[in-house]
């Protein structure tokens, strides 16, 4: 399987069957008017939307209403309205490829294309959504009755051939950058690969300095514990884990140990709790027949961003039938809340938020698209958190970090 097929397979394994989606819908408590009012009063954002990967799919439009059970997608403008979601960070994701000049050039080109696709979406729907470049832009855009879009980069691989390209991506709107993804790269060790650098490479340390200089939030999600520790220690501005979990709740290398969570908070940083089933549950028992069938399904349909909408609907229907034959365990809202409440108790509401990792394999039963976010507000109120706490969790903390990042840059201009 190609890397694209592997990524699609992971996303499909995480997506619900029609039966589990219907069950989740029927069992999620109705949101009380009081909870909805608290939710709507906050600036609600998600720090990691992989939705730009869908922008090149033939016939798929961000302004149309979609359904996760139909085409697998989890974020669009109508469902943002349903979920009271004001905006988020739209990721320029690049899978790690060869660490060669040709690989670096291809990664840079792919990332530039993805950035352009995001901007094309924003131009097409300028009456509904607008790019945000500063922390204050979020409230300004919301006051106009629109949604806002920050840009981020997941995996710094596109910068490997020329780290100076960070300036260009900053000019395109990128305000948060992750160092690595599933594999080590020229900048840092991955949480899910054999350590190569013992943390940040010399090139990674230089990249961190450039992030601080420009005003880009460092994001060590997907990076090793050593990377996280070094970034927290060396960054001149607070750090955001855009989509990570808690290792004390479930032991997985993508989740963060308590000591580093405390250090992150001590330096003003934020962890955005990730709704990703594979980081919350043990892997399913091996099943060669299921894996063979899933591989055949992927091969039959090819790259997801090249499919028509009809092909995607057919793929999802065949996938549901396959998973009815070979059921897969999937995390649920209770698992997500366990991570969230643990982190809140450990480091407090000034340093915790949420991200669904939607359209990138994320989502759990009961929290499977942006329409589902208000249920967490209800849960947080029942757990004793205040309206102000909830406003911080949903967006205030990340906007505070961005504002502090901007202040650092302003105070060091010409220095």
Automatic annotation (TrEMBL):
InterPro entries: Metal_Hydrolase (IPR032466), Pept_M19 (IPR008257). CDD domains: rDP_like. This is Dipeptidase. Gene3D superfamilies: L27 domain (1.10.287.650), Metal-dependent hydrolases (3.20.20.140). It comes from Caulobacter segnis. SUPFAM superfamilies: Metallo-dependent hydrolases. Keywords: Signal. The keyword Nucleus does not apply. Residues 1-21 form the signal peptide. It holds the Pfam family Peptidase_M19. The keyword Iron does not apply.
């Amino acid at each position: 399987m190609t890397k694209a097929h592997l990524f699609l397979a992971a996303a499909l394994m995480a997506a619900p069957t029609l039966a589990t989606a219907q069950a989740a819908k029927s069992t999620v408590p109705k949101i009380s008017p009081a909870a909805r009012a608290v939710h709507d009063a906050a600036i609600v954002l998600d720090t990691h939307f992989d939705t730009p990967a869908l922008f090149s799919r033939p016939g798929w439009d961000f302004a149309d209403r979609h359904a996760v059970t139909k085409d697998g997608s989890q974020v669009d403008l109508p469902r943002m309205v349903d979920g009271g979601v004001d905006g988020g960070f739209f990721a320029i994701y690049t899978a790690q490829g060869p660490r060669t000049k040709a690989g670096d050039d291809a990664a840079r080109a792919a990332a530039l294309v993805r950035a352009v696709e995001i901007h094309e979406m924003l131009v097409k729907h300028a009456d509904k959504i607008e790019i945000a470049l500063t922390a204050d832009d979020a409230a300004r855009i919301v006051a106009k009755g629109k949604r806002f879009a920050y840009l981020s980069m997941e995996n710094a691989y596109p910068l490997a051939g020329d780290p100076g390209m960070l300036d260009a991506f900053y000019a395109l709107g990128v305000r948060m950058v992750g160092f690595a993804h599933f594999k080590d790269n020229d900048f840092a060790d991955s949480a899910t690969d054999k350590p190569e650098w013992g943390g940040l490479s010399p090139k990674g340390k230089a990249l961190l300095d450039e992030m601080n200089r420009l005003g880009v939030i460092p994001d060590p999600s997907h990076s090793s514990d050593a990377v996280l520790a070094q970034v927290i220690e060396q960054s001149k501005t607070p750090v955001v884990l855009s989509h990570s979990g808690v290792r004390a709740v479930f032991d997985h290398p993508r989740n963060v140990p308590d000591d580093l969570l405390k250090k992150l908070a001590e330096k003003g940083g934020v962890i955005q709790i990730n709704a990703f089933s594979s980081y919350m549950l043990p892997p399913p028992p091996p099943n060669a027949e299921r894996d063979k069938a899933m591989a055949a399904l992927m091969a039959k349909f090819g790259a997801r961003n090249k499919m028509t909408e009809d092909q995607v609907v057919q793929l999802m229907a065949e996938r549901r039938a396959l998973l009815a034959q070979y059921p897969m365990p999937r995390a649920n809202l209770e698992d997500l809340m366990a991570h969230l409440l643990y982190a809140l108790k450990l480091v407090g509401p000034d340093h915790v938020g949420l991200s669904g990792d939607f359209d990138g394999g994320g989502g759990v039963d009961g929290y499977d698209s942006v329409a589902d976010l208000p249920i967490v507000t209800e849960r947080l109120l029942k757990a004793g958190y205040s309206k102000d706490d909830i406003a911080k969790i949903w967006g205030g903390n990340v906007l505070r970090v961005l504002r502090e990042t901007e202040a650092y840059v302003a105070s060091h201009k010409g220095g």
